[in-house]
Each structure stands twice: as structure tokens, then as C-alpha cells.
């Protein structure tokens, strides 16, 4: 199909139309299903109920045409023939035309859907029974794949005569065009429809129909399969040993050590003691297996605790209909099944994804409960959930079984912020009630109040929590990969040396045996002690980190990654609980001409005392007179046009303050709850709690907040004011505002209050000259701003609104948009009341920590599940976004073309922070992952809001693949576990959201501010120390290999060891190990310098401490020193009458020991007592070995000045040139830290 470039107007509006279609296609949060034209029940939308036919009316045809018009825009402005269209005649022809257009439309929509499936938001497909079409032979592959999606839409059009004539005669077995259109639109947007047919035949992607209570049990209890069991383990009993060993031997040096150890089982290849080869390898493997076994056991214990927790499952009553304890069964969480009706009590974990059937709040009123979702989305705000309306009104729990209801639930998917389903009563004329997110409790959330009766919808791997979880994996650090690479280079050198010796000897006789023996003799070039030394060093680093007073409470849960702390290039952080305390505090109240802060809150208190008029008659006369005098003073001042500062005398500002306090007290969803004698404020948003606490500070108390009333009390007056809630418009991410229509119980005045973001409120309030400026001022201070406005309604205005609202509420098609349109009739010419500024309290030292990390070269991203506005405010207040930096937002974009355009525009910007929301992020990850990471990684910072756990992990994975830098992730909630486990370095914070993040992390700290010492100090030391330790251990092995090679070459290519096995064991252990290992406590700079000059960290990110250049320098030193030691030892003993292989071995080995000790001493930056002890101990141990090993050392020769002089000459020739070269290099090209010491 040829597609030319479209008309400018069509292409320009395509993204907007797609977005509008996504909003309009949904039936709404809780639509009512009513009877159709032919008297069919509202349940015609249901699963096989009320199949009837109604011809479309003129408005329905208009809606249908509008729907197809959106198809036209979403799929690039093509008409049904695949050509670009400049008019809408083709769309009109589709709706009003006959069957001649059907085949064209089928083909075009199917192919267009296949082409443009990338517009999808990722919603799982949905399929209806008996509605799948078997493509004919001439259907294309794409049509075959997508045909199931559009059969519902196309089939009624075959009855073209009915549509053309407008006949109302029924068509047997047909579903109405209107119904099919609504079916497609009720759950999926057009971009989602494009994807729907791709794998519609997969049962996993089909919607569920669940019988309430599990249907006919055929007895008292059902057979349970354990399908809800949680398994977070990496291995089982059978796979543990082979998989762990496989993971270990994926590293080349471990495989090499195994090969060398096994070769010693062959007598012809044995060149030393077998234990000297097997013991170090077995030690490393035992340590690794023990750590893995302990971790697996801990995971098993946690899983068992969760799986064995028992819940009450309701069973059908024994006949009296009232139910008793015998009608319940205690069932472990692992055995719960779909359809089970369970009871969840306060503070209990929700065991599966469930539908809330009946809610029993703590205060005994209402149909809502609060849940804590911190382990799901990372937010500590309590979320309100409401029960299904029908089941909430039932008399008892056992009546649930008598209802014989069914629940239609969407196919399992990862989306945690959305849900669509239906509650259906087939026996009651197909009664149906729409279900949305507010009716659900996802697994791993916790019931925060009351108790609930709920039905299980999804279990096990189908729950949102498990679908967003990632399997535990074994991480290998960059340092390990670098060592593995260097080991391979050393192996190549080993092979070259062995081949060289074999070639010089000649390819005759058993040359292959000599080749293998040469390789075994030179195998010290890859020292097996390298693995042992590094593992022991990691334990030392862990001990130092855990016992550092600058990081109290730090726990190192994995000792494999201390070096990775010194290489971090990206830091990905959660917001709530990590950067912020999620505790809001009121800061400012702006009334236009007057600004109140916490410093002059007493002025507000004086006005609040008179907010509800005169004091009650029960008050004392003296107090009454005082209040009356104040009231008269204020009202007298208010009658003058003068407006003064809030710090001045009372003025007409009294009216403004009164209106502001009432608006704040009414426009919220805060519920006061009395539990255990204490009063708590429960809300879905902490800023609402902060504002109500502000009211209480100034003397206005929220007495109660129900679905029907709001009661406020003026404490000073001992009076209450009751406002009846008539209508309420909840806050949504799309609307960015909430509204409420209330009626004063005393005066009868009807008022519409609204609060929201300034970007939305600016369009619905009357003209003013201060809203934009003052909101900008508060936002620059990092405060979360809310704009309050009101409009007083006359009775006639309210009646008209109520009538239109009811009509829209009963509308079955495009209901959500219809309700929004009616709501907008109220949002006109509203009176601007005030602006509030609320601060989200940061964790201690967040600003200074972020500043230091930026100077250290880290690029910091904030990934949060919170709203865009909240995330942006925190980014500003925490100084993640500096004053000199701009912000670029990509928000709410689902169109591939639009998101690519915005991404290209962002790439052209400099020094700009990227702001992206979850929807746009998913579009970027689906279509432009590489381009997105390339652009975002160049930004000084990035903020991603409404991020799911999977998206967080995906960002980490992309950054690791495309940036080439180490990625660290820090969080404190269960939703951060995926990100933490995927990162190169995972850091967890235990807090209000539990211990999941802390337990899953490699490092656990108690505060974000502890990152500075953890990264800049311990990360630096761990990496540099391990790098030097590795280089010295490799130097120690390479130098002995060079000595062996030179020895074999001098003595006619003999394949024999130059040194005895015992002294080789001592060489790798007590003679040199302690001085080399003492490097793990060396410091090149002090903590004060590392903390004051975080720029020093940038050098570590380049990996220069263990790069190829440093490795080659080490190789050069080893080759030079090994050659000099053996050649000079032979030269100075050449004419000696005492010349023998024993004396040669003694002289060269003694010079080797002194060379190693001197080289370590020259390398130390800051001497400590343990280093001196290690050097002295090694010398003493060597002297004792000379005395003990009489068959190895000739004591009569050793303890002479002549012998000592020869050893001294060899040592000086070996060390002086190397030491001089190091001195000159530090003199003329000093490292960065040397300039500060």
C-alpha cells in the first residue's frame, strides 16, 4: 500500500485526536448500562447477554462517524482505500454506506493497525467468545493476525439495507452496531485496538469471566492447587549446585584454575603438591556456595512466611442465610483461587489482586477503605478504595453467593494505575456495573483501616505485583569483568611463552608433553591467589563500611561490589522516602495583595476566630464581649476600601481569609479517624493533610468528612458549620483539578469550589494579574502550589446542571467525555480565592549530597510513581534542577511521530533537564530506546514520573547497555526492587515503606545523605585499593613466571621448576601476602579532601586505575625484574666455587622476596602500623623458613657477608630503575590527588 505524505492539517492534529480518542473511548469510571432501543437489557454489553439489534439513531451515527474520524487521524489521515483524504466524505460513506465499503474497510483497518501498532500503550488484547473469524486464503498475514479485533466492528455492516433505511427491525443473532462500537471503545483506545488483534487467540490475553464465590463448589470446599504461591528463589535443591558452579566457571580465571588443578592428577604433568593447586580453588568455591546458600535460605523463609499466612474464605451458608463461623474456611495464601471470597482485616497484606465487594470502615460509615500501596508504587500516601455498589448494599456476606454474579475482568497486565471490568447479574435482566481501579486491591498492598470482603480476580504470576517483578539474578561487577579480560590476556602471554620455549627446544620427541609442562610451570602468571586475596579484601571493605561512624546503620548485604561504588556514572533515585520524607508542611498562603507565611500565622488565627460568626450562647459574657468587639473592629475596617499588609491592622482582608479557609476546609478528601483513642487524618495525598493541619493550627477543625457532608468547627467559637456535598469531581492526572458542589446547611447557599494546578485553573478563573506571577514565584522556591477558586450558583443554575449531569451519567457511549463537558459548564468565570504553597520535606542533607555528586560527575535521575507536578517541585526544591538550567517536558504523549519530534527538539537543547511521564516514557521505550537514552544521558539530570517498577528496571538496563557507565539505583520501597536488582550497584533505604528495598539491595543505608561517604570515600578507596592489589598479585605471579622462563632457557630448556614447592607456597602466602594485602588499608587522600573535592571521583569513572595502560606497565616491570633477577644471579655466581642450583635458587629467591617487599613499600601512600608489622613479619617468616628448610637452603652459605652482598646487588639492579621511573612520572605527570596532598 502506497502512502503519500498527508494533508498538513490532518497530520498536525493526529496526536491530539489520538489523545482525545483515548479519553473519549472509555465508558467512564462507573457507567450505568440501560436498555436499548428494542428493549434489550443494559446487559447487552455483557458476555453473551441480551444479543439484539437496534438501528443507529442520527446522534449515534454522528458519534460513530466521529469515532471513525479519530481512526482517520490516528492512522495517518488515510481513507478506507489507503489514499490520503482531504475531506470526510469517505468516513460518512463508511457509516452510511452499504456493504460495498466493508471489504475495503476490513483490509485497510487491519493493515493500518499492523503498520501503526506502535501507537499502542501496551494494554493487553481482549477477545469475545464465538467472535473469531477464520481468514480466507486471500487474506494477508497481517489481516489474519488482526481480523479478530475488527470482526465485532465490521460484521453488523453486512446488514447494509437496515443501516441505509434506518429500519428498526431486529436481525437475529446480531449485536447492534452501537453496542459493538461501545464494546470496542469501552475498554480500549484506538491505539490499543490496533494492537488488540495481534495475539488475541492467546488465552493469557483474553479477559476473564469469574463467578462470584467460584461457582458451584460441589461440596463444602474446593481442591486447591497452590497457584497463588510466591517464589522469589533463584534455584531449587536440584539446580542449586550446578547453576552456582556454572556461574562461577563462566569467569575465565576460575576455569583456568580448575584446569590447572585437574592437570595435577596426571603424574606426567605433576610439578608440585596437588594441595597447593586444589586448596585455593576449593576455598573460593566454598565461600561462594556458602553465601549463595544463605541468601537462598533467607528468600525461602520469606516466601514460606507469606505463602503460609492464612485468610478466611467465605463458603455458602448452610441454609439460614445468616452465616456463622462454620461458613468460613482458613486457607493459606498460596492456595487461594480465582473467585474465592476472602476477608481481609486491618494491617493485613492483600494476598492477590482482588475486587472489593464490601467495605467496613473503622468508623462504621461509608463504602470506602484506605490502603497502603508503598510496596507497589513506592508512595506512602493512603489510597481510597470503594466497594462495588450492589454488593455493599447487601444485608450479609452470605448474600453474595445468592446473587449468582459474574465479574468480567480485563486480561492480566502490568498496569497498576488502571483497571476495567464489569460486575454482572445475569439473573436480574443483565444488570451490569462498571468496575474501575477504585474497586480493586492489588496484591502486596496493605489494608490501612477497617476490614474488607473481597473476591480474588488474579493469582500468582497474573497479579500486578508479580508481573512487575523481575527474577533474581546474579550480578557480576565491572571490576570482575576487567579482571577476567586481563586474565585472558595473561593466558595468551602464557601460551606464547610456552610455545616460544617449545619452539626453541625443537619440535621433536614428546614436544607436546614439554609444551604442557611449560604451561604448568608458567601457570603462576595467572595466580590462583588473586581470587583469594580479592575476596578477603572485599570482606575488609565491608567491615570498614559497616563500622564507619559517618554512615551509621549501614549494612553491606553483598560483599561482591565495593569496588563498583567507585565507578558510578549514573545515579537513579526514587523520590518518596528517598529524597523526601513524604511529610508536607504548609509554607505560604497568597491572597493576591496579601501573603501569609508561617511567620505571621497569628494574623490568620485572629481572622479564623470569627469565621462562623458570633460565639455560642454558652460562652462567658466576658469572652463574648471581647469576640464581639474584635468582630466589630474587623468588619468596620473591612467596610473601607483600604487594603493593608497582613502584618497591619484588620482590614477587608478578613473576607478573603474567610473564603480561603472555607475553600481549603471543603475542597479535599481527608477523613478524620479515631483509632485507639488517637485522631488521625487519612487521605490519598499528603498535601491535603498538610492543608487541613494548617487549618487546625489556626483554629479550624475538620470534624467529619463523609460522602454527603463536610463539618468544620471554629475552636475559639465552639461552633460548627455543616456543608452538604451535592456533587464531587475527584482529582485525576488528566484533569489536574478536583471540584465539589456544596450547600450550606444554614443559609442554603450553593457553591462550587475547585482547586488544581495553576496551568488548568488559569483558564477557568476570571482575569487577574497576579496568578501566573505568584505561582511562578512559589514554584521557584520548590513549593507545591494549589489554586483555589469558587463560584456561587443560583438555584436555577444548579437545577440545569443537575439535570444535564444525570443525563450524562446515564449515557452509555462516550460517558466520560459527556460528564467532563457538563462539569466544564460550572468552570466558567470562577472567582480566584487563593494560592497555597506546601513544601515536601526533604531528607537530611539532600541538597548538599546532590550538589557533591553532580560535581563528582554523576548524572542523577529521579524515577517516581508520583505526579509530574509533584516530581518537578521536588526536583527544584532539592536542587536537582539548578537555577541556571531549564526544564523540557515530554508528558502525555502516546503518538510515535509526536514523541520523536519532541525528542529531536530536546536533543537540540543544552543544559536542560528532561521531564517525562510514564505514558510518554513507555512510548519512548517502545519505539526509540536508543535515541532516548542517548539524548537523556547527555542531560544534566532527568525526572520520570508515574513510573512503574518495570519501567524503572528498563531504564536501568538501557543506561547500562548504551552509556557504558556504571549505574547505581537507590530506593526505599517494594516498587524499587526491580530497579535496585537490575542496577550495577543497588542501594536500599529501610523506612516507612518496609525492608524490601533494603533486603534486595547490595548496600543498605539509613539516609540519602550517606551516599557522599559511601561513594566518594569508600567507593574511591575500595576501587583503587583493589586495583593496586590485583596489579601487585599479578606482578607477583608474572615475575616468577619470567624467572622460570629465563631459568629454563639458560639450562637447556629443562622443564623443571626453578624453586622447591614449599618455598613457592611460602612465596604466595606468608612471605609476600601480608605486605601486599596491607594495601587494602592504604589511603591516597584523606576523607576531608575526598569530601571537599568531589571532582576527584571523575578520574575513577574512567577506570584508569586498572586499565590496559596500567596493566602493560605492570607487565614491563615484571619482565624486566624477572629477567634481571635470574640473569644477574647466574652472572654473579658464574665463577664461584660454590656455584650450584641450590645456591642459585637461594640468591634469586632472596632477591625476589626483597624486591617484592621494596616495591610494596614504595607504593604505599600513607603508612600505618599494620603495614609496618606486615613488612617485618614477612622478613622474619622468610628468615625462619631458611632455618627450618635445610634441604632447600644452604645455611652455611646464606649467613655470610659475601652472600648478602650478592643478593643486595641483584635487588638494587632490579628495583632502582623501576623506582626512578616511578619518581620521574609522579614528578612531571602527577595524579590529580597529588596536587592536593
UniProtKB/TrEMBL annotation:
> What is the catalytic activity of this protein?
ATP + H2O + phospholipidSide 1 = ADP + phosphate + phospholipidSide 2
Residues involved in Mg(2+) binding: 574, 576, 972, 976
Mind listing the GO biological process terms from this record? endocytosis; phospholipid translocation; retrograde vesicle-mediated transport, Golgi to endoplasmic reticulum
UniProt main location, coarse = membrane
One Pfam family it belongs to: Cation_ATPase
EC category name: translocase
Q: Where does ATP bind?
A: 574-576, 688, 731, 755, 784, 864-866, 946, 952, 975-976
Q: Which GO terms describe its molecular function?
A: ATP binding; ATP hydrolysis activity; ATPase-coupled intramembrane lipid transporter activity; magnesium ion binding
Gene3D superfamilies hit by this protein: Calcium-transporting ATPase, cytoplasmic domain N, Calcium-transporting ATPase, cytoplasmic transduction domain A, HAD superfamily/HAD-like
Domain P-type ATPase N-terminal per the UniProt entry, residue ranges? 226-270
Give the way it sits in the membrane.
Multi-pass membrane protein
Q: Which residues cross the membrane?
A: 277-294, 489-508, 514-534, 1029-1056, 1062-1081, 1111-1132, 1138-1162, 1169-1189, 1201-1220
Q: Where is the composition biased (Basic and acidic residues)?
A: 10-22
Q: Which residues form the active site?
A: 574 (4-aspartylphosphate intermediate)
Residue ranges of every copy of the P-type ATPase C-terminal domain listed in the record:
999-1230
Q: Can you supply one Gene Ontology CC term for this chain's record?
A: plasma membrane
Which stretches of sequence are listed as region Disordered?
1-22, 119-144
Supply the alphabetized keyword list: ATP-binding, Lipid transport, Magnesium, Membrane, Metal-binding, Nucleotide-binding, Translocase, Transmembrane, Transmembrane helix, Transport
Compartments it resides in: Endomembrane system; Membrane
The cofactors it requires, by name, are: Mg(2+)
EC number from the UniProt entry: 7.6.2.1
- Chain coiled-coil ranges: none
- Which family does the similarity line name? Belongs to the cation transport ATPase (P-type) (TC 3.A.3) family. Type IV subfamily.
**Protein name, UniProt field:** Phospholipid-transporting ATPase
What organism does the record attribute this protein to? Porphyridium purpureum (Red alga)
Highest lineage ranks of the organism? Answer: Eukaryota, Rhodophyta, Bangiophyceae, Porphyridiales, Porphyridiaceae
